[in-house]
Specification:
mainly alpha; 14 helices; globular
Length: 319
Amino acid sequence: MNLKELKQQYNESLKSMDTEETIDLWFYRPLGFAWAVLFSKLGIKPNAVTIASIFLGVAGGILLYFGASPLIWLNYVGIFLIIWANTYDSADGQLARLTKQYSQIGRILDGVSGDFWAFAIYFALVFRELHFGDAWLGDFFSGHPWVIWTLAITAGVSHALQCAMADYYRQFHLYFLKGESGSELESTDKLDEQIKQTTGFKRITMFFYRNYTANQERLTPAMQRLRSELRNQFGDQMAPQQFRDDFRRLSLPLMKYTNMLTFNTRTIAMFISVIIRIPWLYFAFELVVLNTMLVYMIGRHESLCRKLTNDLKVGKYNN
């Protein structure tokens, strides 16, 4: 395979340039692509890569617990493992796109992999605060453990919401950019139909995934009205190109927030808080900075959906 063919294959492994973040393009995607090519040659499936990322991420999170010498060096091993896990998290999607091995179970598994990492990291940081303290407020948290637990739980809930909404907006953008085949956008109506046709463990998994999607829909009423109006006017057909162009123009500036609310920005903040030995600052960052970003992103996206819904109703996109 020559360089031109390799570059083309790499580009095909990406979701889209609209939704890629700079750090990913310069670091995680090239490494993920290298892993994907290797795994493809070895016959390793995307879901196996996702499972490997879970073990790496959880191990890395646990190593963040050690907050005092002589084991503080384990924090750096933990950071390395979390970064390694994210290269696998990138590789599983790139491998699926390269080999056309898509599956709904794979998407669900990919979504929950980050949750496993998060559980390990949050518990490690809480017990670190309680057992080792830190430069600021260490004695306070030791004497009032409920405070750090409250911070961690509310930050964890915020984390889950931020990632869910960022992914939902990204998939909505990809739907109009690349069509149904290039997006993983779901709806509870379709998932309800699929659940009726499944049994056993897959049915249980689909049930939780359905509730995950339902929560996304509840937080986006204007988006759901836009989707309903599109179905009313165009049925199962894709919206006209002019509508898709208008949506992309309005949605594209928000894609940077979907990236900031997923992995890179939050992990940089978390790594810094661990290195300077003030881990509770990471919880505060999620609660204040990232939640502010989330509220802004939801408000902006709902506004653009209301605008486009009104444009549809007055016939702007009718031929």
